[in-house]
Design a protein that fits this description.
The structure is a homodimer of 383-residue chains.
Chain A: E1 4-11, H1 22-36, E2 44-48, H2 52-56, H3 61-68, E3 75-80, H4 85-98, E4 104-111, H5 118-125, H6 141-156, H7 160-174, H8 188-193, E5 196-198, E6 201-202, E7 212-220, H9 221-227, E8 232-241, H10 256-269, E9 278-280, H11 286-295, H12 304-309, E10 320-321, H13 326-329, H14 334-350, E11 363-370, E12 375-382
Parallel strand pairs in A: 2-3, 2-4, 9-10, 9-11
Antiparallel strand pairs in A: 1-7, 1-8, 4-7, 5-6, 8-12, 11-12
Helix pairs in contact in A: 1-3, 4-14
Chain lengths: 383, 383
């Protein structure tokens, strides 16, 4: 297997970007990533995106983004895995380099969500659920996660106030990340008094709606040395699936797709959860962040809420978690999120992440999923 | 680069499949492909599909199909490249094996188009065009291709009757393919008197709307020998892009994405166009089939219509073209088409294609694109 390296990263600040269309926004991140990789010339492009079809009537997204980025002609395709599209696009891009097909591959995640009213976006997001067995009953994505959160609280005895520590800490980190959408601090009181979205999920348990794009330049080993002084190796990748509809799962507090994807990535990178210094996990809602920590093997089942509330997983801890602010505060432009995570971890390992730093991490991890841990990708990076 | 082989193929007959949903239809093809590969156990799944989001509100398609096929847990993602989704999914699946990530990978293309009125499907298909620069003017996909067909006829002096030879021959082949949607013969007279869809395109120049799924089992070299007595090697793959909107192209009668994708695939397989014995090309409309033959290097620019009308490209010719009946008569369940093509070529090389046979071909090619040659994949197979 050929070794693959991240040699360039680029991100836009997550937020309302009424000034640019999908192609232009993706190109903004791409240009930054190419600049960061000393003007690398990508031979192929993988685009992670969830909602271009449902919100913008736009398919052929690979070709569209290639053209906006001045790359007309390159190989391209679009990867969809709902909110996990970005992470899966990273794995797809990895395989294009590792296979020997291409030496330099660009991966971009892009999403525009702010052009429409929240009701329209919520309906588009609900396409991550099972259309035949869940959507027809009027379910939304927050309502599905609310079932999981209630069960988590009841089963493990987690209090509302303890869970609120998650968004509080994410906003603290986000306030110091120049790319974050929500750059203000909040208190436990703010969280528990914020409006109910789908009980027990409140507004401040939920990741915001935002536009954003993030890009990576991936390169084979020999090329990587020319394009970067600080290449970061993609040491392991894993993907796994679960049922789309929650009703056919045996245990809603397990997240087997996260566990299986992580096992594959750990095995490939020859590391264990204890070796991970810094991680970005998928906290679309407070409870999904906690489930990630448990399924990734960072903490025992049912204990993430307590250990997090007690202060673990901060900067310098093993691992430091979501120093970007996570989906909660950096933002969650759904199909782009997985690429943001990998870009952030790569920057932590290089030492140039512009927000809260993890110290001097050697090994990092990004975990991104579509649906309620319906399909997960895990990427392990090494300095 | 690890060698990759097709060790199993499975197809459903293209047609109206009101009896099954997307997941069930995909599973039907998957079960056949797995049976054909001696009960192979895939570790990963790539799903090619265009319209699950726009017609069925369904994302997370990789996980959904995995679950319906009894493969819950496997790695999975969904590839979109409009009508070229299937072929790009094949290349993505190829890279997952060639990279060493997995030894056995399933690729399935699936599309359901018949559940909705034609007007709804036509609108969904138009997502292959540029939403901001073409769709807003009310353009449809047939109308874009009509511009190209008129220009082709005018520039190269092709007569309406000569062009009609394409669909006539496709229906002849289709009538003998048990998987084809349109299994009846037509005459030149039928074509030129069929209703106008978008002048000069008539009904019988157009591929039909249909439901269908096709699947491949891909395997690494050592595993392939165990799963098949007649493994077919994926000897070369290529992908390339052009602009989405036609107005920004220099020459509407060129198809550079087809040319570039083919060059890459030929180079990788160490073959030239003259070596290809059997091919499936993307005749969504009569004119796109002709442009493919020219851009693939089988015939000079502007001459495909004449040589085809004179009888070239039949069984035993080099290459034999679209013996399945092509998109025109086998049918064009858009996101599945590219996988049908590769399955058909693999069967031609194995000698067990159940329709018109190419003789004893050694090298075959499948060319599939999204949009009007907006993003193309080319796959070269070798016995």
């Amino acid at each position: 297997m050929r070794r693959v390296f991240v040699v360039g990263v680029g991100m836009t600040r997550v937020g309302r970007r009424f000034d640019k269309g999908l192609g232009e926004l993706a190109a903004e991140a791409i240009f930054r990533a190419i600049d960061d990789a000393r003007g690398a010339r990508p031979e192929a492009l993988v685009v992670g995106n969830m909602m271009a079809s449902s919100l913008f009537n736009q398919d052929n997204l690979g070709a569209l983004v290639a053209d906006y980025a001045g790359l007309r002609g390159v190989a391209a395709y679009h990867v969809e895995a709902a909110c996990g599209s970005g992470g899966h696009a990273v794995v797809a891009g990895y395989s294009l380099v590792a296979s020997g097909l291409y030496d330099v591959v660009l991966v971009v995640g892009v999403e525009k969500m702010c052009d429409y009213p929240t009701s329209v976006v919520t309906a588009a997001l609900a396409q991550a659920a099972d259309a035949e067995h869940e959507l027809v009953y009027g379910i939304s994505f927050p309502s599905l996660n609310a079932l999981v959160m209630r069960l988590y609280m009841k089963t493990f005895g987690a209090s509302r106030e303890a869970l609120a520590q998650w968004p509080v800490r994410m906003h603290e980190y986000g306030s110091r990340n120049p790319y974050a959408q929500l750059r203000f601090r909040i208190s436990v009181d703010d969280v528990v008094r914020s409006p109910v979205i789908a009980d027990p999920i409140r507004l401040l348990d939920s990741s915001p709606i935002g536009d954003g794009a993030a890009a990576l330049v991936l390169a084979s080993e020999d090329v990587a040395r020319k394009l970067s002084d600080t290449p970061v190796e993609v040491a392991g990748v894993g993907m796994a699936t679960d049922s789309v509809d929650l009703s056919s799962r045996m245990d809603l507090l397990d997240a087997p797709s996260v566990r299986l994807a992580a096992e594959k990535a750990y095995r490939m990178a020859r590391v264990s959860p204890r070796d991970i210094d810094v991680a970005e996990v998928h906290d679309a809602f407070t409870v999904t962040g906690l489930l990630c920590l448990e399924a990734l093997g960072f903490v025992e089942r049912g204990k993430a809420w307590k250990e997090f509330a007690d202060g673990r997983f901060g900067p310098g801890d093993k691992p430091s978690v979501n120093l970007s602010g996570g989906l909660k505060a950096r933002g969650h432009p759904v199909g782009a999120t997985g690429v943001y995570q990998v870009a952030e971890i790569a920057m932590q390992l290089r030492g140039d992440f512009p927000g809260v730093k993890a110290g001097s991490p050697s090994i990092g991890l990004a975990a991104n999923f579509g649906g309620v841990a319906t399909q997960t990708s895990v990427v392990v990076l090494r300095r």
